[in-house]
Amino acid sequence: MTHLNKRRVGQTKLEVPVLGLGTAPLGGIYARVEEPDAQATFRAAWEGGLRLYDTAPWYGLGRAEHRTGAALRDLPRDEFTLTTKVGRVLRAPRDRGTFKSAVWQAPLEFEVHHAFDYDSIMRSYEDSLQRLGINRIDALYIHDLDRGYFPDEDTLTGKFRELESSGYRALEELKRTGEVSAIGAGINEPGFIARFLDVMSLDLFLVASRYTLLEQSIYQSEIVPAGARGASVVVGGVFNSGVLATGPSDTAKYEYASAPAHVIERVTHLTRVAEAHGIRLAAAALQFPLAAPEVASVVFGAANEREVSDNLELFNSVVPAAFWSDLRAEGLVEADVPLPGGA
């Protein structure tokens, strides 16, 4: 398999490349990225053959969508797949003089309003078209409807009801009329694929950091049932915020914070097996999810040209079957998850 291969999304007609570029880093999630560097990153992705691009209004408070559009809008539209997200509406801040983002580095100066009703979903979609300057989006994800943003269970339940009774109708309408080819949800926590499927029919789930070489517990409990319901999975966060790319170190990141001791211990073990087979652990991390038949694609983030070229090299490098067999034999992966090469 190469990054040029495609897989079908659920029961839709949409086919997506197996490898894509995520744009959260280009929105400034880790550090400020200057415009020339952002556009150079997109050029490296395009010239390297990447044809799947994922963005969101949340990333850089609109900046990532603007940058994605600037990079793609003059390229042949039928040659790339574009996904973005709904559930947040951006508005001018009430106090423009004191606005400051607590999350993003050098974002656009807009406030975020979470909303999952019909009108807000439609506005979010139309706003994304305008920011992108591209009049067609291939797939829309419901973004961050989880405890990370709604820790109070009553509030979370209320937002789900709002989506189920109102916003989901907007998504169905956009798909039925051919505005988008697929609808789905982003998943940050175990249990939420099932929670969505309990109340609505979706085509795909963007699973962030929950199905990786470090964590596979949701495979049988959620990913397999999603596939049985006709939904595909796109996997993001394959490096668990960095630790599977950098390996064990004092500065290794896990879940956007310093990696705890038990994670470092497991990554150290994984690294030893990788080194014994003469490969980089990051290559295995990037390739691992696509062994699952339910997984349509893997999306990685990059903030510069070097990270794009490095990830392309990792994805296309050879990982020997014996490496995967050793992971299984040493209990470093769940016994019931698929591994590349059928190990």
Structural overview:
This protein is of the alpha/beta class. The protein is built from eleven helices and 14 strands. The protein has helices at 35-47, 63-72, 118-132, 153-176, 192-197, 218-228, 243-246, 261-276, 281-287, 305-316, 321-329; strands spanning 6-8, 15-17, 19-22, 52-54, 81-86, 88-91, 111-114, 139-142, 182-187, 204-208, 232-236, 253-254, 257-258, 295-301. An eight-stranded parallel β-barrel has the order 3-4-5-8-9-10-11-14, surrounded by four helices. Strand 10 (204-208), helix 6 and strand 11 (232-236) form a beta-alpha-beta unit. Helix 1 packs parallel to helix 10 (305-316) and helix 9 crosses helix 10. The chain is globular. The two termini are 16 Å apart. The model has no long low-confidence stretch (mean pLDDT 96).
What attributes does this structure have?
343 residues, alpha/beta, eight-stranded parallel beta barrel, two-stranded antiparallel ribbon, 11 helices, globular
Structure, briefly:
The chain has helices at residues 35-47, 63-72, 118-132, 153-176, 192-197, 218-228, 243-246, 261-276, 281-287, 305-316, 321-329, and strands at residues 6-8, 15-17, 19-22, 52-54, 81-86, 88-91, 111-114, 139-142, 182-187, 204-208, 232-236, 253-254, 257-258, 295-301. The chain is α/β, with parallel strands linked by helices and 343 residues long. It has an eight-stranded parallel barrel with strand order 3-4-5-8-9-10-11-14, surrounded by four helices.
The level of helicity is 25-40%
Question: How many DSSP E strands?
Answer: 14
**How would you name the oligomeric state of the polypeptide chains in this document?**
single chain
Shape: globular
Count up the helices. 11
Average pLDDT confidence is: 96
Task: Calculate Rg over CA atoms.
Answer: 19 Å
How far is the first residue's CA from the last residue's CA? 16 Å
- Strands ordered across the widest β-sheet: 3-4-5-8-9-10-11-14
Strand content: 15-25%
| Biggest pleated sheet | 8 strands, parallel, barrel
Low-pLDDT stretches: none
